[in-house]
Amino acid sequence: MYTQLEQRGMPRPPVNVSTLAKMKAEGEAIACLTAYDASFARLVDEAGTDLVLVGDSLGMVIQGHDTTVPVTVDDIIYHSRCVARGLRRAFLVADMPFMSYSDRHRALDNAVRLMQEGGAMMVKLEGGAEQIRIVEHLAQHDIPVCAHLGLRPQSVHKIGGFKVQGRDEAQARQMLEDARGLEAAGADIVLLECVPNELGEAVRETLAVPVIGIGAGPKVDGQILVLYDILGITGGRMPRFVKDFMSEAGSPLEACVAYVRAVKTREYPAPEHCFS
Ligand code: KIV
C-alpha cells in the first residue's frame, strides 16, 4: 500500500471517506467489490474499483460453509492483511463477523484488531437500531463504520433464509428510521442488501452519507457484489441481483473493468437484477 507521503500529488490518489462523500455529492456511482487475497485485490484495484470489502462472505466462497456464521475475527484479519498488500487506490473495508460486536467493548477491541492487524480503513457491521450504541462507541474512537441494513446474512437462522427485506410498509419505515439513527450515531456509509428499489431510493434520499446497494436497485450511491459471483466462479443458484460479467469478458481483469464501467454508467443493475 502507498504510504501517506507517497499519496501526495498522485493523479488518482487513494480513496478515503471524503472521496466517497464527494462522489455521492457529485452523483458519481461508487463501484465496490469484495476480495479475499492479494492477487485479486491487485486486479480489482487495477480495474478501478473504489472500495474493496473483505466480507464475511469468505465463509461461503472461500471456506465452503453454507452461511457466514462460522467466520472468525482471525479469518477476516488474515484475508484483510492479504488484500491490503494488493491495493493501491481502493478503500479497504473489513467485515466484523458474527458476535464480534456483541457489546461495546468487544466491538471496539475487534475493530481495533481489524484496523491494526488487518490494515482495514473502515469496519462493517450488520444491524439496525439495536447497533446504534455500538456504532456511537466506535465513532467516538474515530473508527469509520459501515452499517449493513436490509438482509443481514449473519441473522439467517433467525430470519429463516436469505429473503428480500422491507417489502411491507412497517418494515420499510423501520429500516428508514434505523438508517437515520445509524447515520446520526456516526456511520460513514450504509450498505443495503436485498430491498425493493423504492426503499433503496428512499434510504439514499434520506441520508447524507453514501448508500451502497447489493440488490437494492439502481437509485443508490453505489453498488457492491461478491467478486466470485461476477467472475462466474460461485456455483449453485445465484441471487437475482448477481450478474456474471465473465461470460462476455476475455479475462478476469476485463470482467472487473466491465463491472466498474456498468456501475459508473448505471447500466448495472438492470431491471432483471432488482426487487419490487
Ligand atoms: O460479506 C460480504 O461480502 C458482504 C457483501 C455481500 C455486501 O457483506
Q: How many distinct folded domains? A: 1
The CATH topology is TIM Barrel
Helix and strand sequence: HHEHEHHEHEHEHHEHEEHH
Strand order of the largest sheet: 1-2-3-4-5-6-7-8
Helix content: 40-55%
Could you give a short description of this structure?
This protein has 276 residues and is α/β, with parallel strands linked by helices. The protein has helices at 4-7, 17-26, 38-46, 58-61, 73-86, 104-116, 132-140, 156-159, 169-185, 197-206, 227-230, 252-264; strands at residues 30-34, 51-54, 91-95, 122-126, 145-150, 189-193, 211-214, 222-225.
Overall description:
The chain has 276 residues and is an alpha/beta fold. It has a single domain (16-273), classed as Alpha-Beta Barrel (TIM Barrel). The protein has twelve helices and eight strands. The chain has helices at 4-7, 17-26, 38-46, 58-61, 73-86, 104-116, 132-140, 156-159, 169-185, 197-206, 227-230, 252-264, and strands spanning 30-34, 51-54, 91-95, 122-126, 145-150, 189-193, 211-214, 222-225. It has an eight-stranded parallel beta barrel with strand order 1-2-3-4-5-6-7-8, surrounded by eight helices. The model has no long low-confidence stretch (mean pLDDT 95). The structure holds 3-methyl-2-oxobutanoic acid (KIV). 3-methyl-2-oxobutanoic acid is lined by residues 34, 53, 55-57, 95, 191, 214, 224, 226.
